[in-house]
Amino acid sequence: MKKADKVYEISYEESENSRKILEVLDEEQRRAVTDDGGMALVIAGPGSGKTRVITYKIAYLISKGIKANQILLVTFTKAAAFEMIHRAQQASGSSLEGMMAGTFHHVCNYLLRKYASEMNLDRNFSILDDEDSKTILKHAINDYVEKNEKFPSPSIVSSIISLAANTQQSIDDVLNEEFKYFLFFADKIRLVNERYQKLKYEQSSLDYDDLLIYANDLLDVERVRMAEASRYLWVLVDEFQDTNKVQYEIVKKLSSVNKNLMVVGDDAQSIYSFRGARYDNIIDMSKEKDVKVYKIQTNYRSSPEIVNLVNKMIPNNIFAKILKPVKPEFVRPIVVSTWDSQDEASFITKKINEFINSGVSPSQIAVLYRNHSQSMDLQIQLSRSKVPFVMKSGVKFTETRHIKDVLSFLKVLNNPKDSLSWMRIFQLFSGIGKKSIEKIVEEDDFKKDPLNFVKHISSIGKKYEPVEEIFRNNSNEMKPSEIIDSFYESFYSDYLVMTFEDGTDRQMDVKRLIEIADRYEDINEFLSDLAITEQIDINRKYETDEEEKVTLTTIHRAKGLEWDVVFIISVNPGNFPSSLAIGSGKLDEEERVFYVAITRAKMYLYLCRQTTGSRTPFYGNRMQINGGNFDFIEKIPHSLYDHWKTN
C-alpha cells in the first residue's frame, strides 16, 4: 500500500483524562462524543449543547492519543472555529497545535494554494471580496449590454451566478426556479457569466464560490484526494444543515480514506436555502450505509413552558425529536393581540421599559422579526421613549439606500433647495451621469425654481423625460403616502427589482413606509418625525455601552443567539409567514424560521400579532386568510399560552 493510502486503525484506551472529560456531559452528549468511528450524524436540538459536543469530541480524541493535526474541524464562521478550539484546549489541556480548523473557504484556500499547479492556478492567486467581484462583473456586463439598455444590476447577476455555482445548477435552471423575473435576459446572463469567468482567470483571481468549486474539483484528482484524506483521522463539521451541495461533496472526499466523519446540525433549523444551503444534505447522509444517528434533545436554555410550546411547533422533518427541559417551571408564553403595528410597537415599548425598570438588563431583551421593515414603528417608539437599542439586522430603516431614495423625493418637494436630495434623485435615472447632474444644479433657472425647472427638463434632453413625468404628477400639496405611492408605482418599483438582489424585500419596505406615511397629512411633519427618531439615536450613541442595549434583529441574524426576554412581532399570515412563501407554497422553510425564533427565548416569550387588516390602500403584504394553514399561532394549542389583548 502506498504511504498516501494509509488507513489508521482506531484503538481507544481509557485514561483518567478521558474520564474527566466525559463526566461533564449528559448521556446523550456522551454517546455522541464517544462514538468510535465511521459516519455519524448528530441532530442537536436548540439549547442542547451543540458546541459542547464538538469541543468535547475534540478533547476526547486528544485524550485517546489522536494528534491534533489528524483532526479537521470545519465551521461556518471564523469566530465559531476560534471559540471551539479555545474550549477544546481548556477541556483537553492540549495546545492543539497543528490542527486544521476554519471555514470551508479557509480550508479550500489552503488546498488550492498547496496544489495550485494541479488546477493550473498561480499559487499567489487573489481572492476577490464581494465588491471586487462585482467590479469585474460590471466590466463583463459592459461588454454585452448597451449603456442605456435595461438589464439586471451586477448584484442580481452575481446572485444568479453564485446560486448556480453553489447548487450545481445551470443559469437557466436558477432563473426558472428563483429569478423568473429575469428569464428574458437568460441569453445575455449566460454570456456575461462566461466573460466574468474569463476575466477572473486572466487576472489570476478567484471569488468565494470559486474557492469551493475549484477545491471540489481538485479533490477529484486521486493523488490529491488520497494524500489529503489520509491526513485526517477525523473530520468534524458544524452547522451541517447550512451546507450546500458542493460543501457536502468536499467533506465526503476529505473523509474518504479513514471514513470517520461526524457532522452536527439540526434539520429543523435549516433556513438558508436562499444562499444555496441544501436541506437534503442531512437526509442524504442519514441514508448512507452504516451511518449512526445521535439525537441531542435535552434543552438547557428555555423554561419548561417555552419548551412545551416549541415541541408542538417542531417542523415535520425526517428526524422526530422531543426536547426535554431541565430548568424549573416559570411562566407560560404569551400571545399578544394588538390593533395594528403602532399599537404593537407601543405595547412592546411599554413592556421593555417595565422589564428594564424591574432590573432586567437591556442586553437580555430582543425583538425578532421576519423582515427588517417590520421594525420601523418600533424604532420610532423606542427612540421616543429613549430606550437604548441596537440594530443587528442592518442599518436603521431610514438609513437604507432605498428608503433614503424615496425620502429624497419627498424632501425636494418639501424643500426644493435641498441639493443633496436632488443629486440623489437624478442618479436613479439611466443615462444621467455625474457631469450631467453637476451641470443641471448649476443652471440659473434650476437655482431660481428647481421644481418648475424639472417639470420642463425634457427640453434639454430626451433622457430627462422620466424625471419630468414624475414631477409633473406630484406636488407638495398631496399627502406623503400619495406622493410615495405615485413615485413607487410609476418608476421605483421596477427600479428596485432591476437593481437589487433583494428587490422584492425592498418593495415591501417601501409599502411599509407608505403605510406609516398615511398617518400624516403633511410632508414636513412626516419627515420631521423620522429625522427626530434618527437624531435621538445619534445623541444617545455614546451614552450607553453596546452591551446595555435592547437588540432588534431579523430571525436569520438571531440564529445561534439567546435572550431572557424575546418578543416576536407581526406574526400574521402575509407578514410571518411571508406573503412570498404563501404565494409560492414554500412554507416548510418558514416553519423552520418560526422554530428558530421561538427557541431563542430563555424565560419570557411574547408572540405579537395585529388583529386589523390593512389601514391604507397601499399596504399589500398583510394577508387576511381564513383557516389556520398559514397561521402559526392557530397551530399552537391554547393550553400552552396565555392570551392578552391590548386596549
Automatic annotation (TrEMBL):
ATP binds at A44, G45, P46, G47, S48, G49, K50, T51. It comes from Mesoaciditoga lauensis. Keywords: ATP-binding, Helicase, Hydrolase, Isomerase, Nucleotide-binding. PANTHER family: DNA 3'-5' HELICASE (PTHR11070:SF3), UVRD / RECB / PCRA DNA HELICASE FAMILY MEMBER (PTHR11070). This is DNA 3'-5' helicase. GO terms for cellular component: cytosol. Belongs to the helicase family. UvrD subfamily. Residues 304-560 form the UvrD-like helicase C-terminal domain. Its EC number is 5.6.2.4. It comes from the Bacteria. One of its GO terms (biological process) is recombinational repair. GO terms for molecular function: 3'-5' DNA helicase activity; ATP binding; DNA binding; hydrolase activity. Residues 23-303 form the UvrD-like helicase ATP-binding domain. It catalyses: ATP + H2O = ADP + phosphate + H(+); Couples ATP hydrolysis with the unwinding of duplex DNA by translocating in the 3'-5' direction.
